[in-house]
């Protein structure tokens, strides 16, 4: 009986050490900054700020886009397709994020969409910025394509993969 008590005590001590090790483990790496803003020109559809929120999970990143582009009509959830191109490591390579996961948007409200996903696997140190020559943000709504160019670099800076 004495051996089993020592064995149980040792097992409990080992389990407590394992649990405390998990509690003290560093948090998962995350892209920094999490939030960035850039100005976009969407031609006759207007333009303004777009807020980008990036979330990293391993080598994958998802991005949520919130724009100041106002839609005159209500948009049902999932009814718009959004594509966001970001320069990768200063270009010319790009990473494309896309999706049809917009929430329901009432008429005369700002357009938002995401999370947008990318098939690209990212490595620590990669940088992503929406500012480059060409269309960076495309919104397809009710058969209409709204093409937007970033006219400023992201602030506070490009996303950096950790």
Notable features of this structure?
44% strand; 162 residues; 10 strands; 1 helix; globular; disordered N terminus; mainly beta; single chain; ten-stranded antiparallel beta sheet
Description:
This protein is mainly beta. The chain is built from one helix and ten strands, in the order αββββββββββ. Strands 1, 2, 3, 4, 5, 6, 7, 8, 9 and 10 form a ten-stranded antiparallel sheet that branches. A hairpin with a 5-residue loop joins strand 4 and strand 5. It is globular and about 40 Å long. The N terminus is likely disordered.
Overall radius of gyration: 22 Å
**Which class best fits the helix and strand makeup?**
mainly beta
- Average pLDDT metric: 82
Strand fraction equals 35-45%
Q: Separation of termini?
A: 52 Å
Q: How would you sum up the major sheet?
A: 10 strands, antiparallel
Shape estimate = globular
Number-wise, the strands total 10
SSE string: HEEEEEEEEEE
What percentage of residues falls in helices of 4 or more residues?
A: 10-25%
Unreliable stretches, pLDDT < 50, 5 or more residues? 1-27
Number of distinct helices: 1
Q: What's the gist of this structure?
A:
With 162 residues, this protein is mainly beta. It has one helix spanning 2-24, and strands at 35-41, 47-57, 60-71, 80-88, 94-99, 109-117, 127-129, 137-141, 144-150, 159-160.
